[in-house]
Amino acid sequence: MTTAVAATKLRSDQHRWAPYAFISPFFLLFATFMLVPVGAGIYLSLTDWAGLGEPDFIGLANYSRLLGDASFGAALGNTAFYTLFAIAVVLPVSLLIAVGLDARGLKLRDFFRLVYFMPVVLAPIIIALIFGLIFDGQYGLLNAVLEALFGFGGVSWLTDPMWARVVVVVLVLWRWTGYLTIFFLAGLQAIPRELHEAAELDGAGVVRRFFSVTLPQLRPVTAFVAVTMLVNTAQIFEEPFLLTQGGPGEATLSVSMFVYRAGFQRQELGYAAAAGVVMFVIVFVLGRIGTRAFGVGRTR
Amino acid sequence: MELNRRDLLKVLGLAGFGIVGGGALAACTTPGSGTPVSSGDALLDLWTHDPGYATFFTSAATDAALVGGSAWSFGIDVTSIAPADIVSRLITQAVAQRPLPQLAGLVIDQFPRVMRADIAENLFVDLTSLTEPLGDRLLKTQPYSVDGKVYALESDNSVSVMFYRADLFEQLGIPDDVGTWEELLEIGAGIAADTGQAVGMVANGDNGSIVNGFVQMLLQRGGSLYDADGNLTVVSDESVEVLELMAAGVRSGAFLALSDPYGGAAAAALKESQLIATVMPNWYEVYGLQANVPDQSGRWRARTIPKFAGGGHIGSTLGGTAFAVLKDQPLTDAATDLLQRAYLSEEGQLARYHAGAYLPTLVDLYQSPSFQQISDDYLGGQRVFEIYAAAAQDMPIFYQAAGASVLRDSLGGPILRAINGQIGAEEALATGVRMYERQVQQ
What we know:
The complex is a heterodimer. Chain A has twelve helices and two strands; from the N terminus they run αββααααααααααα.
């Protein structure tokens, strides 16, 4: 083989490997920070481990324990409630606010945008403190207002299981509506005005235009927002943790809190990992269902 | 030298690889391990959640009255960490063989986490040889013991007494020496009906606060959550009696149900003079009363807790933070020496009181003149150690077990329902214990 042929082959090899070398950083990072921890988590879920020493391999015992754990069942039920609420209430409310903000001739538009977006940038601990003051059963602002207006104000917002769940979802609504509104607003502003004008010329009213023009045109944004909200709410942690710590009893415990409690309050890391794996599977399946149902990624 | 784009990328790549590789190799070393240091400079790393302990240890390290004669010259490097994160980080650092502190402050409700799987034994120095010679003189070693070995020393005895508004008691005609809870509840019901004021509070917020309030009264009544061997003992006549008393108090208005005994609701109740008495540990005077109602200085007093008619104690305990020494480090002996000097000597206990009002854990010190002569301006110049001494002498023993966190979560809901009158005391206890046993047996 001549030197020229060898040099050509080397160049050819370099060209063949170059693309892989260029994209390798992503895969290296992905493997290091995603695949390895996920694999370790799955292995850990098959062990009994308190954090120190060698994990004891116990097979699927953690999973069978989860099946019979009433606390995990409660956490699943609560999380399902939060998720359902987020999709059924937060999403439509965000869309309606966005439509309102997109209205022609609206004054103080930027002010309203700022107000609706503000909860997103506030520290969760401050939000929890403020909500605690508003919803306190004995000295809360809301009860005081109810008392002044209607003569009753003895609702145990944070200490009654049902009301505590309601307060958590109110917090979810308050915190995330503005954030989602921004996405919808961006989508609304991308809809050509001509479509609305044409529909108006054809005699369509406000409601008809909303359903026949706005909603179909917003479908990609709605799909993205719905799936993101679905996946995020299925992993809800901060809101119940800061507001009620999962209480009263386990009335507001979410699956993420269950994982945290098992791992970092009870030192049952294997059990926490098993709950984490189950949560991952549920979120993944929900995400896939949502993606298919809303047609995320499909061309219009 | 001419540097083309390809060469530049190679240089940058090699430099990056060098940095990452060097960091990775450095991470594989095990700092902290080494030959024990037996004298000389000892800069000790201390992890704590409470600035008060940071201040105390920092000054204690150079206080000749405390460290004079030691082989080490101490210094303290403080890291502030949240209570739950201290245990988590100790474990993760140990697993990763990364640097550990020499001293770590463990909040009492976090200690059960290290009672599992020999974690305490593997992480901490066994301090039994320091505590054993002190015998019954030293209080509150039990909550930090595993298999009879003491792994941490309590900083504050956390003696529970009754704080009350002397001015309002006098105005309302409430005797300040009511003998029993039953009598006080009867008086309290009348006061609540007349003025809406309460002579006690019950937590109805998170599980921790609910169960803590219950345990404080249960210990006073002579009951307990666990015995010395870690067996569950919460199902008892004493527990039923305490729960029924709490429920009766809330029902009649004698007890105020508050979501957070340390938060905004309690502050409002104190400011509005709606809460005119409460049973709380000594530290509540600083963190609860003085912090929320400084304007009520001089109006509050402390007394021992009214007994239950059925028996029990005149004192109780709630909360606490103990310090542990991390084992197998070059400065482990130095840290143990400082902890012994600061925590097990009269000078150390007096210095702790003056630094942050932390009560002595050596029970006989309550009678010593240096403590007895202390008067408390916030409590109207009261000689508080007359009260604390009586309560400490009769302080119940508090035992913990590895499943304490599970028990707290299991009991919280049922206790709340019992307090609210939705279920009976016996049913609440049975429900809670059933939930607990289902989880702990597995």
